[in-house]
Each structure stands twice: as structure tokens, then as C-alpha cells.
Amino acid sequence: MAIQVYNTLNRKKEPFKTIEENKVKMYVCGPTVYNYIHIGNARPAVVFDTIRRYLEYRGYDVLYVSNFTDVDDRLIKASIEQGDSVLNIAERFINAYKEDVNALNVREADLHPRATETMPEIIAFIQKLIDKGYAYEAGGDVYFRTRKFQGYGKLSHQSIDELKVGARIDVGEHKEDPLDFTLWKAAKPGEITWESPWGVGRPGWHIECSAMVEKYLGDTIDIHAGGQDLTFPHHENEIAQSEALHDDMMANYWLHNGYIKINNEKMSKSIGNVILVHELVKKYDPNVVRFFIQTVHYRHPINFNDELLSSAEQAYDRLRTTYYNLLHRLQHSADLLETDERNAWMETIKGLKDRFIAEMDDDFNTANGISVLFDASREANKLLQDKNSSKEILEAYLALLDELTGVLGLSLAKQEELLDEDIENLISQREDARKTRRFDVADQIRDDLKDKGIVLEDTPQGVRWKRV
Fold it and tell me: Where does the chain bind ATP (predicted)?
């Protein structure tokens, strides 16, 4: 049975068929890097990392691209408030983002393009839209002619007539039509800018993703994904730009994860309920946070609070207890089963794996996939009740739990926490390696420490470290 994917574009599940056989081109809209990420930013990172992992598990070669928006109004505002450059702030929070999602076992994208490093392609893309009559320059700004693109509104399922209600032209704008959106913004005093055929300025938000998709993945891709809040206007505008230029579909499947609420309220700075990831993982095992996100289907809204996270922690501990009981029994087991009994156990294990695949094939339903994990745990506990449990079957259950949790990016094995003196010894070994120019050894020590939740910072005063 083919994987079924819910396509926002058509509002239904569709069989997943790739452009190239067994290859997936996947683009996920990444964060605007002006601050630490919150749990709302973490959900798409975890969701689409899981989907990527599952596609690879099912035999696809996935090229995964996720951008960093490193210039926009919020970064410029942060630059003014902090007295630092836009590029410095962006670099700091790109590193912070990577630390936070790494804690949640989110694998790095194959490519992490940045808006500031894609400027020639962005400018060229805009110029080609002007040449085709889909865009125009006015007062140093460049706008997209929304009405000229016949398919506008098809992703968010809105008509032009619905959209024009409430649309207006703000003071200082030179639009032909209130529905037109900005591709290029003329420079304002004190802002970071680039040279362009229309004068100095900077790109609008939507154009960067269209230019990056074209540059790194091509005119049409398999999957374009992001949070539900991006459906309109961001993804709608991306479609308009890209399809107007290429006269072809931008993406065959559009995937969007649902919203996050905190104690059943919308997360908002104004009411002070924003949960930052780097604070959350100090309180809860990052595996538990990732597990909790996956207990709800990715398209559905999810509610966060301490009570729900504590329940997830208890549930995850039950899986871990089974896992470690299997490991313990393995040390005192032997293969004593008759062939029929062995075959019955192996058939049960195969059935559990097949059920997991069937649930995940149904629009990546991690919630139901996790239910299969608990069924596997219950079956394993039946095995543990037999004092003469078979080594082969114990190993098969351990392998099943490792395989299925691995697909979800989870680990049931607890990491041994390093003592402070162990960390200092490893840092000393790293320094010795650097002094003798064995940089591969030094880098490996740094990476090993990072995998154990220890982040190093090289300063003029020496190496500092912290647990994350």
C-alpha cells in the first residue's frame, strides 16, 4: 500500500508519488532567527524531521532543505534595540536554534540556506517576474501583481473577492492594487541593504523561499511544508511567485502542522505564556518533549501544560522500563523454545512492525504509531513473565523497540551523565589535540560532548562549557 499524504492544496489524502523514483525533494520553512525558539517553532522542526526519517525508513532518498530568514523587520528591530548588526544577531540565534533542535534529536537539514546568502538569486527571480509582467517597480519598491496570477488563493481556499475585503494600501506604498504584495523594499535609513536594479533595499519575506526552492531543488518539488500559520499569506504568495515564473506546480504536496496552545490559550508574549525550548529541556528529558509532540497527529492542534508533559514522562518511562527489563533478562536467558512457540512470537513481532508501518503510512500518524509501541511493550512484558524466556525473542523485541523508536527519532537508552571532572578531562584532551594540530580528534571530542548535552564555547579566557 502506498503512503497516503494529506495535501493542504486539495484538502484530502492522496497516494504519495514522487517526481523521481525513490527520491524526495523536500523544503521546510525555517525560523526567523531574531530570538530563541519557542515550542511553537519546535513543533514543525520535530514533525518534519520525523516525516523525513520515516520516508528514509521506507526507502526514499530525501533531499531536505530548510531555510533561515536572517533579514526582516524583526531582526532590524532587534539590531536597533541591541546595538548590534543584523548579521551578528542572526548568527547568534542560528547557533542557538541548532543547539535547541539538536537537543530534541532533530537532524540537520542537508542544506540550510540563508536569505542574505541568496541575494543574487532573489534579485534575479524578481527581475524575471518583472520581465513576464507579473511584477512592477514603484518608488523603489517592487510588487507582485496578485490578480494577474489566476490561481491565487488555491492553497488557502480563498477567492480574490474574499481577499479584497479589508485589503488596503498603507501610507508610503505605491501599489497598483491593495492585494499586491511586496517583493523588494526600498531602503530606509539605518537598515541593512543590498544593491539592486531598482535601487538599494532588501527583499520581502515571501520571495526568499521561492528563490531558494528554485536554486536548490528545482522548479517543482515533491513536498513543501511548514506551520499552519504559514498557509496564508506566506505559502500562498510563494505559489504565486514560483508558478507565475515557471508555469508549473511549485510543489505536489503541501504539508502543514497544527497550532500549539499553552493551557488551552494561544501562545503570546503579551500574556507571558511563551515556552522557550532551551528552558523546557532543562525541566524535561528532550526525548519526552519530542515524544509528547508525537502523541498528537501533526495536523491537529496540541495543548501544552506541565500536567500533560508529566503524563507523557510517565508513559515514556513505562516504555523505558520494558526496554531495560528486556536488557536485564537477556543476561540470564537461553534459547529454550520449541519451533512452533518461537514462530508464534516472531509472527507477533512481525505483526507489530507491519501495524506500525500501516499507521505511519496513513499520513504519518505518529499518535497511532506510538500506540503500537505500547502494544509491543505489553507483548514484551508477557515474555518477561516467563522465567525461561528465549534469548532470541528477547533480542527480537529489543530490536523492534530500537527500530520503531529510531524511526520516531527517540531513544529508550538512557545516556550516562558525565561528571564535571570527566568533562574537564575531555576538554583538556581536546586542547592537547588542537595544540598538536590534530583537529579531527578535537572536533570529534567536541561532537561527542555535544551528543551528551555538553556545549563548549571557545573564549579568549579559555574554554567554557554548559549542560543543555
Answer: 269
Is residue 164 scored above 70 in pLDDT? no
* Cell 519451533, residue located: 339
Q: Which of 39-48, 201-210, 211-220, 263-272 has the lowest mean pLDDT?
A: 263-272
* Domain residue limits, the chain: 4-257, 277-407, 420-467
Nearest CA to 110 among 77, 62, 51? 62
The answer to whether 366 and 50 have CB atoms below 8 angstroms apart is yes
Which residue type sits at 219? D
| SS3 at position 164 | helix
Q: Is 446 or 100 the better-scoring residue by pLDDT? A: 100
Strand partners, 461: none
Q: How many CB atoms lie within 10 A of CB 155?
A: 27
CA 409 from centre of chain: 12
- Give φ, ψ of 27 to 5 degrees: -120, 130
Helix (H, G, I), strand (E, B) or coil at 111: strand
Each residue's pLDDT tens digit, 115-141: 999 999 999 999 999 999 999 999 999
- Beta carbons of 330 and 395 less than 8 angstroms apart: yes
**Which residues are documented as binding site for Zn(2+)?**
29, 209, 234, 238
CATH number, span 277-407: 1.10.730.10
CATH superfamily of 4-257: HUPs (3.40.50.620)
408 CB-contact burial (10 Å; exposed 0-12 / middle 13-18 / buried 19+): buried
Cα torsion at 343, 349, 353, 359 (round to 10°)? 110
Cis peptide before 197 (omega within 30 of 0): no
4-257 and 277-407 in the same fold: no
pLDDT band at 337 (very low <50, low <70, confident <90, very high): low
Segment 409-463, tens digit of pLDDT: 999 987 655 567 778 878 888 888 888 887 877 888 888 788 777 888 887 767 8
Give the separation between CA 254 and CA 238, rounded to whole angstroms. Answer: 12
Summarize the annotated binding site as residue ranges: 29, 209, 234, 238, 269
The pTM score is 0.87
Helix (H) or strand (E) holding 320: helix 306-330
CA 157, CA 232: separation in Å to the nearest integer? 10
Measured between alpha carbons, how far is 322 from 149 in angstroms, rounded to an integer? 57
* Tens of pLDDT, residues 12-25: 999 999 999 999 99
Residues 389, 5: Cα–Cα separation, whole Å: 41
Q: Are 54 and 359 in contact (CB under 8 A)?
A: no
| Rounded Cα–Cα distance for residues 267 and 265 (Å) | 6
Spatial CA neighbour of 119 closest among 220, 212, 239, 218: 212
Annotated binding-site members for ATP: 269
* Closest C-alpha among 70, 55, 83, 189 to residue 118: 70
